């Protein structure tokens, strides 16, 4: 049995991987999800992730969005313990100059109006390929479950993350970059760039999916993860 660490994105928890965890658990993987605490930097977040394993225990990674940045920190920290990494709708660049200003605006809006309202007013048009009330309710619930304190910590991680392009260029780990064709937050061009940087990588772009491909097109995402981490699609 292999260890498979799932790392969610901003304002997300294990529910974003629900279908993937079910599929890969049935395939024999020991699925572990990193549920974010209030750590506001990648170093402490990586320490927290590693605390889920025994010393020197090996593992694979499946990370979504901001979770990819945690995966890069783990890859820097203990490359010898990681076998394969799948990144879903993520990116490898440092924060943009205006990033902190925009995120502070989001944080203040959430403090005043609530995280549910933030999701609806700022992100509902950017998250999905096509409207889906059920998925948006799930996304809003994950945000509510995360809470303001953890959201603030996550925004600090996003603002201070390093560029991981050089890391990818020097990485020989098996990697899978997967993203929605309609993702406007971590677009296909970024998935293609990371794939070109990482020599031992695969690229999969999912049609009819936005940023939350794991929810919009779970069957397709499951199939590719199943094949990448081991197992047959019909098992």
From TrEMBL:
InterPro entries: AB_hydrolase_1, AB_hydrolase_fold, AB_hydrolase_sf. SUPFAM superfamilies: alpha/beta-Hydrolases. Transmembrane segments: none annotated. Coiled coil: none annotated. This is AB hydrolase-1 domain-containing protein. It comes from Paraglaciecola chathamensis. It comes from the Bacteria. Residues 56-216 form the AB hydrolase-1 domain. Pfam families: Abhydrolase_1.
């Amino acid at each position: 049995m292999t260890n498979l660490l799932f790392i969610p994105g901003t304002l997300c928890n294990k529910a974003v991987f629900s279908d993937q965890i079910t599929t890969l658990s049935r395939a024999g993987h020991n699925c572990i999800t990193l549920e974010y605490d209030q750590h506001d930097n990648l170093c402490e977040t990586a320490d927290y992730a590693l605390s889920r394993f025994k010393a020197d225990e090996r593992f694979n990674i499946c990370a979504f969005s901001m979770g990819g940045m945690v995966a890069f920190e783990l890859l820097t920290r203990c490359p010898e313990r990681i076998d394969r990494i799948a990144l879903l709708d993520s990116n490898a660049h440092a924060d943009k100059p205006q990033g902190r200003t925009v995120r502070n605006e989001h944080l203040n809006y959430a403090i005043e109006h609530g995280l549910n309202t933030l999701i609806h007013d700022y992100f509902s048009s950017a998250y999905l390929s096509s409207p889906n009330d059920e998925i948006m309710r799930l996304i809003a619930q994950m945000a509510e479950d995360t809470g303001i304190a953890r959201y603030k910590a996550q925004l600090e991680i996003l603002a201070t993350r390093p560029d991981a392009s050089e890391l990818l260029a020097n990485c020989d780990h098996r990697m899978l970059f997967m993203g929605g064709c309609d993702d406007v937050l971590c677009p296909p061009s970024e998935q293609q760039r990371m794939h070109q940087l990482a020599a031992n990588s695969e690229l999969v772009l999912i049609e009819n999916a936005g940023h939350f491909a794991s929810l919009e097109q779970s069957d397709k995402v499951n199939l590719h993860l199943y094949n990448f981490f081991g197992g047959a699609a019909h098992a």
